[in-house]
Amino acid sequence: MQENAKKNNYSRVSDIRLSSAAAEEKKKESENNYFEQLPPEVILNIFGQLDIQSMCRASMTCRSWNDVIRNSDFLWKPHCLAVRTVCQREVDEDLKSGHSWRVTLLRNYQKSKVKREWLSGRYSNICSPISLPEKTMHPMDADTWGEILEVELERKKSTRPVTLRF
Hints:
Blueprint: H1 2-32, H2 34-37, H3 40-48, H4 52-59, H5 63-71, H6 77-84, H7 88-96, H8 101-120, H9 142-159
Helix pairs in contact: 4-5, 6-7, 6-8, 7-8
């Protein structure tokens, strides 16, 4: 019985030593982590200066950066508004449905890249589906295809050779 008591005392002492060592280690980590010592408005200002790719990379750096970036919806707003220049209808519908700026951006980012290329005429001279770059394509709804078709028809009208009649 005394041996059990001694073992319990030793384990309690070692638990205390371990927990105090862990607390000391955590204190050292927080002293060396200058990011956590910055005021929140400074942190948000820094992340707000990043482009979308840099912000996504920063969110993968550590858990605290990920939490700040993921939970600060206004950081995603300017990027979402940039996507809106191409996908206005889609972005507006998502926002009306109650999606956050971040979710709206995630839902429309790839589509906006593909749609921008279609609207700019990059795929105007493609004669078959085999010629389309599969890896860059993204599923689009009928309204989006309608917009693209209208632009293509206008492009064809403006590039038709004009015949002069005498």
